[in-house]
Amino acid sequence: MTSWGAWRRRRAVLWGAAALVALAFLVVLEIAARRYGEPGPITTQVGALVFAPKPGPLYGGLALMMVVLTWRQRFIAAGAALGIDAVLLLVRRAAGAETVEGHSLGTGALWVMLGFAVVAVTRRTGDERVLLLKGVGLGLLLVAARKTGDAWLFITAKTRPTVLDQYVAMADHALGNPSWAAGRLVDATAPFSTHLLQLVYGQLAVAAVVVAFYQLRDVTAERRFPRHHLVRTFLVIGLLGPGIYMLFPVVGPVFAYGPGASGTGGVEWATANLWPHTSLPVSTPVPMTYDGITPRNCMPSLHTAWAVAIFVHTRRAPRLLRFAGTFWLIVTLAATLGFGYHYGVDLVAGVVFALTIEAALRAQERGWDRPGVRLVAYGTAVFAALLVSYRYLPMEMATLPEVAGPLLVLAMTSVIYGYVRVTRSWATRPIAYVPSPAEAPDDHESPEPDTARRDAVAG
Fold it and tell me: Which of 7, 124, 186, 354 has its CA 20 to 30 A from that of 375?
């Protein structure tokens, strides 16, 4: 077998294994959610084919799928999705069907994505079929990630009755309890600040789709995906993050030290009603019981991790996207603190978490080298050390903030510096160019290496 054929065979095996693992994971989540009386991600997604879907990035998934289509096909796909939704909207209103938070659009986008999957299987062959299926898979993965995340969060609330907020709050003294200061600032500048922060915080997926669409803009012309793009990082962060929630359940200062938010929590569950106007005293932390509804989704801050990923992937984009990536990161950090959803130490962990995952994905696509292995190992070690210190050294961090604070910042900064240094060295040592399927040699030839790689890694 030629080297090109062997490479394609390995890729097919890896994709097949990944699909099986993903399916098994969804089935496990479905079973776990049903044990607690709620539909899982599979049931929710199938139901969206008929009933009004829950809020989610259905049209964002359609937009990502469109990167493999021509402009004419994109207009047809978008028109078909909107037309289907318009018809279903009239039918649902006539039938008096319920909607979730007034949300009734998205079924059309889901139908169109599945329709293109059917077209790929029945009307396409060879590499064109593979490319179209990859596009459909990318869109459906974004949609499935949201449903999977919702199921994960529900399970964290049901399986972790006690939370570790008091430990994290004490550790946060090392940074001066920034959520308290940010909360007071947001209250003083409301309603402008609250509207802006909520808009940015709630539309993070939209920003990600815009950046991803830019990175994948040449897929139609080149008939291939870039080696690395934002969606991969987003999905891995969303997959691994909730696992950390199970190990380190935390609800956030607005819940543990305030009245709660979004219809969950309450003063009766809080340690004390202190956030954000009363300073948090130093006291010995203990695990505390919290309600069975509020997700334990603070450690690490995945909103911070996703915003960091957007920032990183816009550094080589045009100026407008670079500005947007910076703006989204800053405002997301302000929102996570100002709304009381996170402690400052959550954000530190989120930055380290994001850069370690991003480094691992880039190293995996390049082929693991020594700098990549060292960077990922170091980022993993720093992240683990942060969690251990928050859990087992919170009083030391609270009583010695002049020592613990700089050490936290230094640890985070060291990972940032390592990431920048290693990725810059990678940029000066491009990897061998792998030809697209259209450029692949026949079975009797070996592909010629092209070290002047034409499609640099996106972002």
Answer: 7
